[in-house]
């Protein structure tokens, strides 16, 4: 059994425009030192999937800077490794019309050249808006055992406790795990409580994927769920794999903030990062240790290397190179790389992008349901 992977790096950029204005969803920073694509890449590498295509759309300079040659994931290989797949890479009709893909299925049409050149038995698809640590070997094994055409990884969660948006697919299955139907999330499902949603991680045979994509091109189909799964659910075998590990969907600034805050919980960190055989890998950077002054106080926070902490930090996620001034109090905040906070400031429920300057004495506050966001390079 061999498998190759395909990652959609831009497909959900509209979900969190505050952080994707200058980067892809795949390169959104998370958890002090990671990018969201690190979870998908690590899931592949930890499952011995060493040929990975990353489908890009636009605005992917920061993604290229982060991935580099792929050596940090052991994917700098002469055979296989990471392949960046920009739009218009083949003679697919979108190139002639000048239109970039707008859906998952159109993105697959645009990388048919990569798919057809693969010699692996299976293709695993994954998005970049999911934070999880999943054993894909077990998913592929289950896919083989039940003889499915497509296996979709699902997660059971309480809709009332999660922030979901319209691109989430709610899946209905029979007792054997066969997909009977699916619907786009509308919000009314919150009253149902527990629902099964698609994580958009899927496994299928390479030859099957080729056939359905070529058929879709011939018929002008555009939606993977509606035109492939929806129209064939009664004559093909579409199964689910129920994942019961740590799972969070980044579908808005609110959910990004909430997921970041969950990283402060020891149980959540243990579920996500505690698997010794499945480490979450990222780009290695050699930074000086963080400097704490005599007046500094840190409570229940994650702080990366290269910071200078002179004030109080509580329940916060602090990325590399952040400076917290004297007499400053930072609570319930997410501060991305190289943010500078002056002296005697007061911050609560604030999310800063990179290279933000917050001057002395500023008082800024948001709420858990609506964090105060400061864009990249802005001075306040």
At a glance:
The protein is of the alpha/beta class and 380 residues long. The protein has helices at residues 17-20, 37-46, 61-67, 93-97, 104-110, 112-117, 136-146, 206-219, 224-232, 253-262, 266-273, and strands at residues 3-8, 29-30, 34-35, 51-55, 81-85, 122-127, 130-132, 150-158, 169-173, 179-184, 194-205, 238-243, 247-249, 291-292, 297-299, 302-303, 308-309, 312-314, 317-318, 323-324, 329-331, 334-335, 340-341, 346-348, 350-352, 357-358, 363-365, 372-374.
Description of the structure:
The protein is α/β, with parallel strands linked by helices and 380 residues long. The protein folds into 2 domains: 3-273, Spore Coat Polysaccharide Biosynthesis Protein SpsA, Chain A (Alpha-Beta Complex); 291-374, Hexapeptide repeat proteins (UDP N-Acetylglucosamine Acyltransferase, domain 1, 3 Solenoid). The chain has 11 helices and 28 strands. The protein has helices spanning 17-20, 37-46, 61-67, 93-97, 104-110, 112-117, 136-146, 206-219, 224-232, 253-262, 266-273; strands at 3-8, 29-30, 34-35, 51-55, 81-85, 122-127, 130-132, 150-158, 169-173, 179-184, 194-205, 238-243, 247-249, 291-292, 297-299, 302-303, 308-309, 312-314, 317-318, 323-324, 329-331, 334-335, 340-341, 346-348, 350-352, 357-358, 363-365, 372-374. A hairpin with a 3-residue loop joins strand 2 and strand 3. The longest helix is centred in the middle third of the chain and has 14 residues, at 206-219. Mean pLDDT is 90; it is low at 91-98.
């Amino acid at each position: 059994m061999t498998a190759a992977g395909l990652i959609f790096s831009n497909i959900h950029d509209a979900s969190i425009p505050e952080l994707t204005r200058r980067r892809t969803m795949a390169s959104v920073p998370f958890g002090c030192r990671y990018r969201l694509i690190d979870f998908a890449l690590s899931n592949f590498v930890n499952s011995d999937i060493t040929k990975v295509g990353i489908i890009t759309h636009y605005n992917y300079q920061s993604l290229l800077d982060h991935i580099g040659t792929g050596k940090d994931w052991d994917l700098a290989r002469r055979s296989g490794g990471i392949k960046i797949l920009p739009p218009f890479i083949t003679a697919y009709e979108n190139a002639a019309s000048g239109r970039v893909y707008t859906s998952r299925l159109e993105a697959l049409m645009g990388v048919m050249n990569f798919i057809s050149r693969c010699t692996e038995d299976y293709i695993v698809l994954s998005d970049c808006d999911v934070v999880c640590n999943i054993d894909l070997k077990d998913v592929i094994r289950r896919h083989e055992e039940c003889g499915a055409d497509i296996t979709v990884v699902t997660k059971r969660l309480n809709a009332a406790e999660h922030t979901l948006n319209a691109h989430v697919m709610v899946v209905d299955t029979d007792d054997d795990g066969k997909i009977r139907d699916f619907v786009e999330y509308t919000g009314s499902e919150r009253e149902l409580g527990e629902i099964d949603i698609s994580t958009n991680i899927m496994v299928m045979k390479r030859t099957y994927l080729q056939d359905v994509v070529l058929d879709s091109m011939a018929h002008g189909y555009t939606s993977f769920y509606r035109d492939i799964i929806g129209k064939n659910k009664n004559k093909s075998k579409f199964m689910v794999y129920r994942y019961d590990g740590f799972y969070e969907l980044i579908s808005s600034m609110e959910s990004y903030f909430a997921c970041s805050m969950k990283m402060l919980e020891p149980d959540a960190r243990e579920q996500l990062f505690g698997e010794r055989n499945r480490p979450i890998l990222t780009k290695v950077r050699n930074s000086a240790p963080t400097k704490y002054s005599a007046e500094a106080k840190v409570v229940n926070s994650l702080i990366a290397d290269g910071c200078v902490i002179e004030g109080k930090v509580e329940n916060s996620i602090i990325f590399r190179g952040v400076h917290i001034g004297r007499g400053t109090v930072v609570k319930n905040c997410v501060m991305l790389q190289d943010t500078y906070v002056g002296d005697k400031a007061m911050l609560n429920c604030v999310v800063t992008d990179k290279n933000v300057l917050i001057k002395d004495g500023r008082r800024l506050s948001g709420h858990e349901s609506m964090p105060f966001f400061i864009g990249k390079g802005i001075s306040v």
